[in-house]
Amino acid sequence: MHTNKDDLIDLNRRATLSCIDLVARVRPDDLRRPTPCAEWDLSDLLAHMTVQHRGFAAAAAGDGKDFDWTPRRLAPDFADAYAAAANEALKAFDQPGALERAFVLPEIPSADSFPGTQAVSFHFIDALVHGWDVARSIDAAYDIPADFAALAVRIARAVPGGPYRERPNASFGPAVELADGASPLDTVLCALGRSPRWPKGQGVVW
């Protein structure tokens, strides 16, 4: 399946805006809740998600190598800060020539840099999967739109594997065995190291 640049930008924008809406539903009392990323509570996860958006924005501007990707402690206005960071990334992707630039993404060490469209595809899948993480943590319903499905599955299966997926605080763990007849969302989750059954049964360890 071929997805052109404009379609990818549109899907990524929609996925990111949906994630903003989810984070806006998080209350301060929720921040200590567990998440499918076993080493992170919801506060840790949102801090990671926020800095990732800022890092992608920096990479779109050619500064991904020098950007400090270390998550910061959440401020009281964490939902507003998250929305600002997410919109910063979307704005950066829209800049003329941004997607023709090589993106340096140190947290994906399988290559020195990535083509702009591939980097946006990573941002898209990040929004989908971390959106699910947040939804599961706060017991919110979550699914992906039908027109996201084929692209999301293709990208998830193409995300580089390797030892970095096994290190502490990795965004994506080693792939989980996929059940027969799995939905597109479950296929994406399993490809990126998450159990669709979380928190029941064998939970996600990443």
TrEMBL record:
<dbReference type="GO" id="GO:0046872">
    <property type="term" value="F:metal ion binding"/>
</dbReference>
<dbReference type="Pfam" id="PF11716">
    <property type="entry name" value="MDMPI_N"/>
</dbReference>
<dbReference type="InterPro" id="IPR017520">
    <property type="entry name" value="CHP03086"/>
</dbReference>
<dbReference type="InterPro" id="IPR034660">
    <property type="entry name" value="DinB/YfiT-like"/>
</dbReference>
<dbReference type="InterPro" id="IPR017517">
    <property type="entry name" value="Maleyloyr_isom"/>
</dbReference>
<feature type="domain" description="Mycothiol-dependent maleylpyruvate isomerase metal-binding">
    <location>
        <begin position="20"/>
        <end position="135"/>
    </location>
</feature>
<dbReference type="InterPro" id="IPR024344">
    <property type="entry name" value="MDMPI_metal-binding"/>
</dbReference>
<protein>
    <submittedName>
        <fullName>TIGR03086 family protein</fullName>
    </submittedName>
</protein>
